[in-house]
From TrEMBL:
Keywords: Kinase, Transferase
PANTHER family: FRUCTOSAMINE 3 KINASE-RELATED PROTEIN (PTHR12149), PROTEIN-RIBULOSAMINE 3-KINASE (PTHR12149:SF8)
Coiled-coil parts of chain: none
Name of the protein in question: Fructosamine kinase
UniProt xrefs under SUPFAM superfamilies: Protein kinase-like (PK-like) (SSF56112)
Gene Ontology MF terms in the entry: kinase activity
Amino acid sequence: MGDGEVFVKRRTGAPAGFFEWEAAGLRWLAEPAGGPTVVEVRAVTPGSITLTRLDPVRPDRSAAERFGRHLAALHAAGADAFGAPPPEWRDPTGWIGRQSLPLGRWDRWGAFYATARLLPYVRAAVDNGNLGRDGATVVERVCDRLAAGEFDDDRPPARIHGDLWGGNLLYAGSGRPGDMVQAVLIDPAAHGGHGQTDLAMLELFGTPHLEVLAGAYAQAAGLPSDWASRTGLHQLHPLLVHAVSHGPSYAQEAVAVARRYA
């Protein structure tokens, strides 16, 4: 890491609270003992966030394995409810990338996931023409099964990053020979969810040494032997988010995945 150097992120026209949301998520993710390293927030203003600068290095298998275990510890730290934001965040929405992220409190994961993570983005993708009505119907059938509790398990709400694609998992170090490489979380959409959602997003968009990372996570988190069969279900949210912002190809992929669970 950068020995006191900082990195300032700015966004022209950012909505009110945009950087405060990021800061709240980073601080919340950094709390649990045994969790992963999280980039340090130095300062936040309505138009910017100042973070400790990271020195990216080549990831190695041991760093990925450690991160898998640390991610499981982060998730085990829990959240107040499914859909609940970091405690310091009071607004009913946050952000995932440039899109709004509904927040709230749900007792069951399936109802939360259908109501707040799938249906809003189905509607938005239909409205902007990126998702056709027939495809939307397929995803809505999955939402019906989710809302009925068919995919619920006994796991309590996990403290998840919420936007854990490979670009938001950086490997950093001092650059000095022999120093340990650390996996570092940046840019979250943190909330209470299902831990497998973070893992599924890493698989969807790719990250180095994924097999090692996922194996370490599954063992540490005590995932059931059939956990991988539900990976696609957890990938529907990021696919639909991208369907809204990045076009019909992501909508088509979301529908193809949804057919497996409809």
